């Protein structure tokens, strides 16, 4: 395991250096594309009769296990760091729109993409059951907070739009994982890392109980962790100890959430937001910079590592004509479902909270998918239906990172301009 992680770390550092020195794409996009290109080169060399490197690289990736690496590894740190970097007070002011989008958009998108995937798989000659198609809808619907937060840092969007996008992404991630676990339970596939047995809860009542336990339990447990962190950190002034306490809170809290059968992702988001809300009170002037700097650096390094892993995992993907056609169709359908699933619930909050009409387009095109979708797909049990789901998931994620990530800036600028243009009409006294 240590050798495999060392290999991943060295390859990631090399890819990041090449991108930063010569290519100069946004780091996450650059290392993803470089990793995917390196994977394709290894596949090509293997088919030309030069085996060895592909087998070694595949063994490294399988040893690390992407699902374990993300869901049971770095996800807790990434979510906590992302939430810690946000303005909690601003998020509370926009809580109605954020929670509406996080819940209803994810549920609508799961249904739309799931049924669309069922039809597309049948169209190309792949017999994938409806429940597996719905599982694909659940894992691909949430926007990845890691990818989205990195995008927002580069885009410098207005605070109101940044809070909406980041907040929705953080919470719909947790909701999406809970929906996925509930569907996996209904399909008799087990708890998929939730800490429960899953298969014993395959009734409608059991699925609803699991959803409630995961979601509400995760929110409550996150609040408990945040309160505990506040009490511990406020009484000391040594930044190394404060970093250690917050790190223990995150890693230990995530493991405890899994043991309790509640949503670890939601718990980390709530804990991070609570610490962010009180950071001026709990961290002294001379320690705040050290603690926040640690979490920002950890976020950036793990972010780069994750996206390199995404690119390199192309080695584990099987490709065929029907799968390529299904992938192309579902990339387009996923974008359409994202737009519709945002537009419908957004109509309930847009007028009341004063968002510009262009915000829906920004939420659609800026809703990147990333490592969480791939980790959930790779965590599915061995089955004849697993390969289609995994391959299409890779295609949607790579398109999202490479195409949407590189072209979202014009959409950001238009959304910001639309917000400024509508502000005088809706709030004539606002300076």
UniProtKB/TrEMBL annotation:
* GO MF terms held by the record: potassium:proton antiporter activity; sodium:proton antiporter activity
Q: Which InterPro entries match?
A: Cation/H_exchanger_CPA1 (IPR018422), Cation/H_exchanger_TM (IPR006153)
Q: Which GO terms describe its cellular component?
A: plasma membrane
Q: Which residues cross the membrane?
A: 66-86, 98-118, 130-149, 170-190, 210-233, 245-278, 323-342, 362-380, 392-412
Cation/H+ exchanger transmembrane domain residues: 12-414
How is the protein disposed in the membrane?
Multi-pass membrane protein
Extract one GO BP annotation from the record. sodium ion import across plasma membrane
Q: Which residues form a coiled coil?
A: none
Q: Where in the cell is it found?
A: Cell membrane
Its principal location?
membrane
What keyword terms does UniProt attach to this protein?
Antiport, Cell membrane, Ion transport, Membrane, Sodium, Sodium transport, Transmembrane, Transmembrane helix, Transport
Entry's family note = Belongs to the monovalent cation:proton antiporter 1 (CPA1) transporter (TC 2.A.36) family.
> What name appears for this protein in its UniProt entry?
Sodium:proton antiporter
């Amino acid at each position: 395991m240590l050798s495999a992680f060392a290999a991943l770390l060295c390859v990631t550092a090399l890819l990041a250096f090449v991108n930063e020195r010569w290519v100069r794409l946004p780091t996450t996009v650059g290392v993803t594309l470089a990793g995917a290109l390196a994977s394709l080169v290894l596949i090509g060399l293997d088919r030309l009769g030069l085996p060895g490197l592909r087998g070694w690289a595949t063994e490294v990736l399988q040893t690390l296990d992407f699902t374990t690496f993300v869901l049971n590894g770095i996800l807790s740190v990434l979510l906590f760091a992302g939430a810690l970097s946000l303005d909690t007070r601003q998020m509370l002011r926009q809580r109605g729109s954020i929670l509406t989008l996080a819940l209803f958009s994810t549920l609508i998108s799961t249904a739309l993409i799931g049924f669309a995937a069922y039809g597309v798989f049948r169209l190309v000659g792949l017999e994938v059951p409806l429940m597996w198609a719905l599982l694909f809808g659940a894992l691909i619907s949430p926007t990845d907070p890691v990818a989205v937060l990195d995008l927002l840092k580069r885009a410098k969007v207005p605070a109101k739009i940044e809070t909406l996008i980041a907040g929705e992404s953080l919470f719909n991630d947790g909701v999406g994982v809970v929906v996925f676990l509930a569907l996996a339970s209904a399909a008799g596939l087990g708890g998929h890392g939730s800490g429960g047995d899953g298969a014993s809860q395959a009734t409608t009542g059991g699925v609803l109980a699991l959803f409630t336990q995961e979601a509400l339990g995760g929110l409550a447990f996150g609040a408990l962790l945040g309160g505990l962190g506040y009490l511990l950190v406020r009484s000391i002034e040594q930044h190394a100890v404060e970093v250690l306490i917050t790190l223990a809170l995150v890693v230990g809290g995530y493991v405890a959430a899994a043991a309790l059968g509640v949503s670890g992702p939601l718990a980390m988001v709530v804990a991070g937001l609570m610490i962010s809300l009180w950071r001026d009170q709990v961290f002294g002037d001379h320690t705040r910079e050290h603690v926040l700097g640690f979490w920002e650096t950890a976020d950036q390094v793990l972010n780069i590592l994750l996206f390199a892993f995404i690119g390199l995992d192309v080695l584990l993907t099987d490709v065929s004509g029907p799968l390529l056609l299904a992938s192309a169709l579902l990339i387009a359908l996923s974008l359409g479902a994202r737009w519709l699933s945002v537009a419908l619930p957004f109509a309930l909050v847009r007028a009341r909270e004063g968002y510009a009409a262009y915000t829906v387009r920004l939420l659609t095109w800026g809703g990147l998918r990333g490592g969480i979708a791939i980790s959930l797909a790779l965590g599915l049990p061995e089955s004849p239906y697993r390969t289609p789901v995994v391959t299409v998931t890779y295609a949607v994620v790579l398109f999202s990172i490479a195409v949407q990530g590189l072209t979202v800036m014009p959409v950001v600028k238009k959304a910001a301009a639309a917000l400024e243009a509508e502000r005088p009409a809706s709030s004539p006294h606002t300076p």
